[in-house]
Amino acid sequence: MRKVRGLPRLNVALLLWLFVVAPLFLSTQVYANIIHSERSLYRNIIVEDTGDLRCLRFNVKNSQSNQSCFFKSKPQSLVFNYTKLLFSALLINNQPERILIIGLGGGTMSNTLHQLFPTSNIDNVEIDPSVVKVAREYFGFIENHHIKTYVQDGRIFIKRALLKKQQYDWIIFDAFNGDYIPAHLLTQEFLTESKQLLTPNGVITSNTFSSSNLYAHESATYHAVFGEFLNVRNHKNNNRIILASSRQLPSGQALVKRIASLHSQLSAFDIDIAAIYSSIISSSTDQDWPENTRVLTDQFAPANLLNLD
Amino acid sequence: MQHTWQNPLIYMLAFCSGFCIMGIELLGGRILAPFFGSSIHIWGSIITVFMLSLAIGYLLGGKLSTQSASLKRFGIIFIIAGLLILPIALSSNTIMETIFIFIDDSRYGSLLASTALFFLPTVVLGMLSPYSVRLLVTDKNKSGQIAGKLYFISTLGSAIGTIITSFYLVLFFEVNQIIISFSLVLVLLGVVAIVADKLSAAQAVSYA
To answer: Is the dihedral of CA A99, A102, A106, A108 positive or negative?
Structure first.
C-alpha cells in the first residue's frame, strides 16, 4: 500500500522539478547580473545578483565557487547548507561569548551569529582587504563594538592571540575556497595553536572537503590534535564540517532539551538543528581514513597538490 | 693546465647551485608561513632578499676570482654555502619566533626573517657564477659565449630546481629534509671540486 501511495508523490515531485525548479535554474543562468567585479591581491571577486539572490564569487568561470549568498528580501536566512551545518557547534556550547571567524566571505555568518547572540564578541579575520570592503558594501556586513574585523592572515592572528592569552568559545574556519588552500591553516601545528585558544567549553568548526586525497590527510591531522572528532555532512554537496572540542556532545535528557531550545532559536534562520544532529558521525565509530595516513605538518603540507586528485 | 673533464664539472656544479638556490627560495614561502602568513608581501620579502644577496654575491665572487682562482677555492665556496644553509633547517623556528615577538608588522617581520635565514647562504651561492666564468674563460674572444653558456646552464638548473621542488619534493619529504639534502649536495660537490683540483695537480706534475 505504501508503495502505491508513494509513487504518485514521486511523480509530482518530478513534475515540480521539471517545470518549476529546473526552469528557475535556467533563468538564473540567464539573468545573473554582475553588479561589482574587481581583481584583488589574491583573487577575482564578483558580486552577482540573480533575482532576489545576491552572491559573492571568487572565480569567473566556475559558478560552483560561490562564497557567500543571501536573499535580499530575507537577509537573515542562510542560503548555504554548509553554513547551517556549522551551527552543530551549538550542540556542545550553546552560549558562545567569544567567537572567532577565520575567512569572512560576505560576512553572512558573522551577521547571523550577531543576531543570535547580540552581546557576544565576534572577531572576523580576513586576509583580503577587498573581501572586507565588498562585504561592507554589498552584503550588509554588520560591525560594531561587539564585532571586529582584522585584515590579517589567520595563522598570524591566532599566534598573536595566543601571545595575548585570548580565549574563544567558538572558532570557525571558513578559509578554504576550493581552488586554493592556505596550507599553513591545515597543519598539526596550526590546529594545536587553535586548540590552545579554546576555553574549556570551546568548539572548533571547520568547513572543509569531503572529496579528493586531502580528505584522509585532513582527518588524520585533526585526529592527531583532537583525538575523536565529529563529521557533520549532508549528501547534497561536497562539504563536510569537522566539529572538534574537548567537550563531548550532551546525551540523553540534556541533549533533547538542548535540541529543543536550539530549535526555537534557530528555526528563524532556516536551520533544522534536529536534522543536523542526525547527520553527525563520530570519527570514533566511523574512522573512514587509512590508519597509516600521513599527518599534515608545517614541514609536510602539500595540501594543494593532494587536493588535485 | 686545463683538462677536458674540468669544464663539464664546473658546468655541472653551476647547474646544481642554480637548482639549490631556487629550491631554497621556493621553500622559503613554506618556512615563513607559520609565523608571517601567506600574504603577498611574504613573497616580496623573500624575492627581495634573494635578489639582493645574489647581487652582492656576484660582486664578491667576481672580486674573489681575481686572486689566484682555482677549482679548490671554488670547491671551498660550495662547502661554505652548504654549511650556511643548515641553520635554515636547524634553527629557523627559534629565529622566526624571536622576530615574531618583537616585530608586529608581518611585512618587516618577514623581511627580517628572510634576511636572517637566507642572506648569507645566498650571497655565497651568488659568488659561484662569476667565479665559474673566471675558471672557464681562457680565450677573451670566447668569454661572452662562455658566460652565456654558464648562465644558460645555471638558470636551467634554477628552473628545474623550482619545478622539481614545488611539484614533487614537497609531496614526499619534509621541508627540513629537503633543505638538509641541498646542504649535503653542496658540500659533496665542494669536496668533488677539491678532489678534482688535487687530481689535476697530480696529473700536471706527472706530465711535467
So the answer is: negative
